[in-house]
Amino acid sequence: MIPLEWMPPLMFGGLILFMLIGFPVAFSLMAAGLFFAGIAISEHYFDVLFLQAIPQRIFGGVLANDLLLAIPFFTFMGAILERCGLAEEMLDSMGQLFGRVRGGLGYSVIIVGFILGAITGTVAAQVIAMAMISLPVMMRYGYNMRYATGVLAASGTITQLVPPSLVLIVLADQLKTQSGSADVGSMYLGAWGPSLLQIGLFALYTFLLSRFRPDYLPAAPESQLALRGWCLWKKCLLGIIPSAALIFLVLGTIMTGIATPTESGAMGAMGALALAWLRRSNIPDLKGLIEQAYQNTMRITCMVVFILIGSTCFSVVFQGVDGGQWVEALFSDLPGGWVGFVVAVNVFVFFLAFFLDFFEIAFIIVPLLAPVAVKLLSPVLLASMNGNPQAAASAALVWFGVMLCVNMQTSFMHPPFGFALFYLRGVTPKEVKSSDIYWGALPWVGLQLIMVVLVIAFPALVTTLLDKPAALIQSQDFNFTNSEEPAAAIPANNVGDDAPVVFRLDKPTIK
After folding, report:
1. Looking at the chain, which terminus has fewer C-beta neighbours within 10 angstroms, N or C?
2. Residue 386, pLDDT score
3. Is 474 part of any domain?
4. pTM beyond 0.70
5. Among 42-46, 201-205, 259-263, 327-331, whose mean pLDDT is lowest?
6. What percent of the chain has pLDDT over 90?
7. Cα–Cα distances in Å, from 271 out to 32, 186, 253, 284, 436?
């Protein structure tokens, strides 16, 4: 006889065991869920009919989810743009623009990384493209190798945070509770503040390093700066204007309410195709590029769907053995209140990211933590949301999601498992030591962790751009008020169709 309170931790242990054996994550989730479902049924914790919820959720909540259609659209857009030569032109023109400044190539990599992050959303392509273009130039100019590899990896991973990041879309889909939910538009609005501040931190670190260690970041020789004046600005604008147009096509339509995330993703994909066609002279095989983009999109989309199916199987069984209550009790009783909760969660996610990528973390961990986050973080934001509990709950989920997104950037950077470091190692010359790549990543991981602390300490970085509805919301059918006075009792047959209703907690009273 296995006690019910042992089942949730045993399920996590079983999941880890399946993954250590070598099963793919999606099938490990399915295997752990079905294995412990058999134990729960034999122990009479729930009936076999309870498992009907698994196919209902898969077909009703995963395959019928319109929001998830945005993933293949944005993936296709990124796959097209990463090979159409836009990165090369922007890096070259920005390098010329900032070349006379110490650390100029570092600034250009940071700025181009931010722009590419807003139009591609793929870390691998961004790191590889910028490393192949910029690293040889940095080596030729005598840049410190640890700084050069670190800034390339860090500027590639910021695509995780800059809208329209796939991470933000996935988190918006998973951060849904009975009290509130985080939509994609709110996640995008909330991510702008931290992403811009992070770019500022990266630039500040480059500036300070160029002042205290000028030999690390020398200015480019004048002989290498061929473009000047209007010719230079024209080349910069030829790269920035198409990018800005595509960014507005995708993000502007979402934030202005013109299009849903799925519709904006479709427009972004068409915009990427149009941009590739306009730049066809720089693309040797446009048809082959499109075929590769379709294949890459299919692989990533299938991976996401299989992980979602596996996580649905695991989460249904986990909830069936009171796993949600176990997680809530585990994190609600931490010392320090909401601060202790966010610190513990971020430390947990930081170390979990050593072994799992953001898809697994988002689909397995985030849905379990979302109810606890709403319970503990909503009171912190209640005053800034004009005392509106529902707005505070939704804002708390956005704050929590952006916080995790900033944290999960480090999963690509921290040694020894950071994928961005592997991508960098694969394209760097042999004279670049692996130790330089790993040691070079550490200062940038530190900057990313500083960003996590800033997002925790200053929630306004996330919530400033969010809608702040008034505490009293009136509509045609309902009046929402905090009145503590009892409503007048009147006979039900005298109530008109348009009689207002006073809501106190969850108990409506007709007046």
Report:
1. N
2. 82
3. no
4. yes
5. 327-331
6. 9
7. 42, 23, 13, 20, 39
In which element (H, E) is residue 510 found?
strand 507-510
Of the candidates 280, 300, 320, which is a domain's last residue?
A: 300
In a domain, 400, yes or no: no
CA distance 71 to 296: 12
Encoded tokens for 274: 């149009």
Q: Which of 405, 364, 355, 411 is nearest to 190 (CA)?
A: 405
Does position 281 have pLDDT exceeding 90, yes or no? no
φ, ψ of residue 504 to 5 degrees: the values are -125, 115
Q: Which domain holds residue 506?
A: 479-510
Read off the pLDDT band of 122 (50, 70, 90).
low
* Residues 6 or more apart whose Cβ sits within 8 Å of residue 420: 123, 127, 153, 156, 157, 412, 413, 441
Higher pLDDT, 349 or 180: 349
Whether 116 is in a domain gets the answer yes
Instruction: Name the DSSP class of 493.
Output: G
Domain count, the chain: 2
H helix intervals, 321-433: 323-332, 337-352, 358-364, 366-381, 389-408, 419-427
d(CA 92, CA 108): 9
Among 281, 300, 319, residue at a domain's last position: 300
Residues 6+ apart with CB under 8 A from 88: 129, 133
- Please say if the pLDDT value at position 490 is more than 50: no
Structure tokens at 136: 């040889």
Name which of 120, 79, 116 is nearest 94 in CA terms: 116
Could you tell me which residues are beta bridge partners of residue 176? 181
Above 60 in pLDDT, residue 215? yes
pLDDT on residue 120:
64
Residue 195 lies in a domain: yes
- Res 377 pLDDT > 80: yes
Q: What crossing angle do the helices spanning 166-174 and 366-381 adopt, rounded to 10°?
A: 80
Q: How far apart are CA 434 and CA 280, in angstroms?
A: 37
Q: Which of the given ranges, 84-88, 251-255, 310-314, 470-474, has the highest pLDDT on average?
A: 310-314
- 481's tokens: 């008020």
Judge whether residue 282 has pLDDT over 80. Answer: no
Distance spanning both ends of the chain, measured CA to CA: 54
Considering only CA atoms, which of 175, 60, 149, 187 is closest in space to residue 421? 149
Tally of CB atoms within 10 A around 204: 11
